[in-house]
Amino acid sequence: MRKRLSSLPQRRDEIDRLTHYPVNLMQHEEEAALQLAQKINHIIANSSTSAMMLQDIAQLLGVAFKVDCCCLVTAHKELTGGEEIAANWCPQEYLDSSTDEIFSLEQLDLPVVQCAGEPTIEDIATIQNSLKIGCQQVPIPVKSVLAITTHFGNKKNGVISLIKSQLYDWSESEKYLLTAVESVCAIALEQVAQAELIASQQQFLQTCAKHQNLIKQLTILGRSNLEINQMLQVAIASTAEALEADRGLIILLKYTDPLFRNLPKKQIPKAKATVIGEWSRQPEDFYIDKQDNQDHCFWLSECGISRRAFTAESGKPVIINDTKDRRKDTSTIAQVFILEKLPAMLLMRLESQGKVLGFLALQQTQPRYWHTAEINMVEMVCAQLSNAIIQTQTLRQVQMLVDERTSQLQRSLDVQAKLYERTKQYVEQLRELNKLKDEFLSNMSDRLRYPLTNMRMALRMLRQPGRTPEQQTRYLDILEEECTKEINLINDLLTLQKLENHQEPPQFETLDLNSRIQDISASFEKKLVEKGLNISYELPEQSLELETELESFDRILQELLTNAVKFSERDTTIQLQATHQVIQQVDRVIIKVTNIGRGISEAESTYIFDAFRRGRGRWTPGTGLGLALVKSLVQHLSGEIAVESTPIEDTDLSKICFTLNLPQFSDQDKTYPESD
What we know:
Radius of gyration: 59 Å
Number of strands: 18
Distance between the termini: 118 Å
Strand order of the largest sheet: 8-7-6-11-10-9
Number of domains: 4
CATH class of the largest domain: Alpha Beta
Largest sheet: 6 strands, antiparallel
CATH topology of the largest domain: Beta-Lactamase
Shape: rod-shaped
Number of helices: 18
CATH superfamily of the largest domain: GAF domain
Helix content: 40-55%
């Protein structure tokens, strides 16, 4: 509720002035003063704002005194936040006209400025200062001034100035009237000062609340799990909004020289500056294109304001209040700052233990003068962000070190595990080889001893007297047969050793394939009859010529037929098939030996061609050298051999097929068009 003033307040200093006033006042002058005071009180009581109240009082006084201008200025700096508040009034005709005469403080001497009372030196200075402030926008020349300082609570709180655009001699009644309303005007000026103080305090409280909220946000942000770039983005947005900036930037530096700390303090190191966080009140106007790396990065040495901030004292920002405040070196400011649209800027560096990490920039579209509290807040934000950056970098380095050590440990464990598995495999292989060695020695011992035993028995029988010629012939045949077996066994061992060492190249001959296959299979006729086996042939109608080593080819086919006869079921048929194929533009001869017998498991097929290895559970005697010798001879002839076991339905038997693949010609580089 507004307080209504009904009468003129009485003060001791006013009574003293009236007592010594030299003029005898007339009754109508007192009434005029009272009426004017009441009108001022009415304005004070009913004005909606302090600015409107001062303006209305200035107009009231200007009209009452019939002056060209009336100016009211507060003089209570501690209440108005260090700034004077002024209100002036001029008639409309002066506002509509223009004058080239400029107001000058040199005009304000006593012949021009008169005081309603006896002024002190301090009063004169106050009046001069108030005219300097209040008359800056006055559109008339100041030729004559009647002024009075107002007092409230024994303190000066303002000045009332009546201004004439022509020289004028102020009357005593005008001086009295101005003195009479001084106290009422003092109340108005005090009320304005108090209102401004309250508004200033409210604004200060709002600013403090924003700053406290910013500190709280940054504290919570520092405890979050956000990535450093996300955290910096949120931090610059909160800071720019709290400080009412139009745009905010977080810029981080990446040094090319890791030893830059050893450089002189004023020397600018080579560093790349990159915008990490950006916030704008009008994103469509001020956001930089992050896709354009040139606009979003710049070299520190190429930006004048960044160089200034880099070499500035710790905690001291570089401030550009407006375009006029730019220094010469800022003509090379990086495009990222967009100074043509945001001419006012505050740039403060982010640093930790003497290392400059980057910069925080706040920009405005209009001139701005930063208060100390705001600069302190920016400094605090920079300190928190610097600590967060260092903490994140440290944690990242620690995490990288932990990851590296963990990776090294994991690799070491993997290597140890592989070594363990490899060692385990070697142990198993050694165990298997020892087992094979024992089996081989046992088997070879039996196979070598068996012919020798038969030969010794035959010799004993021959030494006995009374043997008929038929008996002698029979024992000699046995002796020869067993000697041949012994020689063949030893020769097989020597041949296998020679093939493994690749001691001799093959000696190629040309043979007729059909005839050779039939000749070799004919030598098995007796064994086939004994076991009730048959042989079927699938040979080319036109016999093929094969360039190969005759001895090796014969031995391969003999061993395959021996193996087929040995492991075939009685009363079955052994199939011999020969074809010609062109594989990868090379003529090949494919020979297949197929028999029906006990199947070969997948596990057995992997080692069936290894030396001294025989199928598990097979009771048929043998050394295990046959198929190993076949494989070595096939490789000696640049061929390939494979085995396939296919179960026969509704039986426990399988069809076993050995496939021999040999080059048809010794010159393997010779190619022919593909044909059957």
